[in-house]
Automatic annotation (TrEMBL):
Keyword field: Repeat
Source domain of life: Bacteria
GO-annotated molecular function: carbohydrate derivative binding; glutamine-fructose-6-phosphate transaminase (isomerizing) activity
PANTHER family on file: GLUCOSAMINE--FRUCTOSE-6-PHOSPHATE AMINOTRANSFERASE, ISOMERIZING, GLUCOSAMINE-FRUCTOSE-6-PHOSPHATE AMINOTRANSFERASE
GO terms (BP aspect): fructose 6-phosphate metabolic process; protein N-linked glycosylation; UDP-N-acetylglucosamine metabolic process
Alphabetized InterPro entries for the sequence: GlmS/AgaS_SIS (IPR035466), SIS_dom (IPR001347), SIS_dom_sf (IPR046348)
Organism field: Olsenella porci
Family annotation (PROSITE patterns): SIS
Protein name: SIS domain-containing protein
Length: 363
């Protein structure tokens, strides 16, 4: 049986999401939260797990009615580990072998606090490092550049927020069902983007296959999508890819624009449409390589369009397969899976994974 690729996992994602919802995978984490009184949540995560938390954060804040902080594990260990009793902290690692995430769990334990770990592999090193382990239901990914793990972690965090809101009486059972229906409505939109991505790639192949410097722009949930898209372009295509908040783009980064730059604008949700239009129009005065992903059918020159969804805090999640498909296919076409030969030396000298981790990247 041939080994699965990133693209296979992108296609598997809707099935995983449906399974998470059917099994209410986040209920155990919500029960842990509801067992005490907390006034904020801290998610400790890095890489794609951090990006998933950033995507989930706007909706999660609204569901919880509390501030949600996303902190990298090193920063948490070095600078931000006060751990007040009013803060619900948990550490996320899809693989369960990230050394910085394991260190964060150890630090929490050293303070006599309960170390909560969320992972996609319940048999990983997280099993021993966490006092309570929560499997978010992604299953295994046999590739180094995760896709379904990002999307499913977002949905897990959303389900966590919904279940807490239900448990605290801020959502009725009927209202919970309506929120779940909105998440389920993302699946056909996700599939639509998955179908559009190869067509965009074929139509604008020369531009996309020659990208050298890229900006990925968005606000709110759209910004989280930009962060993950930038990570995928950077780690797979090995090009500088910079995520920027919609308006922050105008405060310095735009000054380096040139006709060779490629700019992606994520503008799903009515609140961002007007400013996104202005930014796109101005950017096109400098470079023709502009790609717009939106739910605004009237957006002239839009690259990818999705049907509007009532909650703009949820809807941008459907854009992820666009970046995942491009990262995979262009890396495959350009034979870029192997990195510079010296990167293998770097990895032998310093790795972000524990000794028990089986390398999935090609160096």
């Amino acid at each position: 049986m041939p080994r699965k690729t990133m693209l296979d996992y992108v296609r598997e994602t809707p099935q995983v999401l449906n399974g998470q919802i059917a099994q209410d995978m986040a209920r155990p984490l919500a029960d842990a939260f509801l067992g005490s009184s907390y006034d904020r949540v801290r998610i400790v995560a890095c890489g794609s797990s951090k990006n998933a938390a950033m995507i989930a954060r706007p909706y999660l804040r609204r569901s919880l009615g509390r501030e949600v902080i996303v902190t990298e594990p090193y920063t948490f260990c070095a600078y931000e580990h006060e751990l007040p009793a009013s803060e619900f902290t948990f550490v996320v690692s899809q693989s369960g072998y990230s050394t910085n995430a394991l260190a964060a769990l150890d630090l929490i334990r050293s303070f006599g606090m309960k170390a909560l770990g969320v992972t996609g592999d319940a048999n990983s090193d997280f099993r021993q490092a966490a006092d309570a382990l929560f499997d978010y239901g992604v299953g295994n990914e046999e590739v180094g550049y995760v896709t379904k793990g990002v999307t499913s972690l977002v949905v897990f965090l959303w389900l966590f927020g919904i279940d807490v809101a239900l448990g605290e009486g801020r959502l009725s059972t009927e209202e919970r069902s309506r929120e779940i229906a909105k998440i389920e409505a993302l699946v056909p939109r996700y599939m639509s983007v998955l179908e559009q991505a190869p067509l965009v790639l074929e139509h604008r192949y020369k531009e996309l296959s020659s990208m050298e410097r890229t900006f990925l722009i968005g606000a709110g949930t759209n910004y989280g999508i930009s962060c993950e898209g930038a990570l995928k372009f950077g780690e797979c295509l090995q090009i500088p890819a910079i995520p920027l908040e919609l308006e922050e783009y105008l405060h310095g980064p735009n000054l380096q624009l040139a006709p060779t730059y490629t700019v992606f604008v994520n503008a799903v949700g009515a609140s961002d449409r007007a400013r996104a239009r202005e930014i796109v129009e101005a950017t096109r005065l400098v470079t023709d390589h502009v790609f717009v992903l939106t739910d605004d059918r009237g957006f002239e020159g839009a690259t990818v369009t999705v049907d509007p969804l009532e909650s703009s805090l949820l809807a941008p999640l459907s854009l992820l397969p666009f970046y995942q498909v491009l990262a995979y296919q262009l890396t495959e076409d350009k034979h870029l899976w192997h990195k510079h030969p010296l990167v293998a030396r770097f990895d032998r000298r310093l790795s972000g994974k524990s000794d028990n981790y089986v390398d999935k990247e090609v160096l």
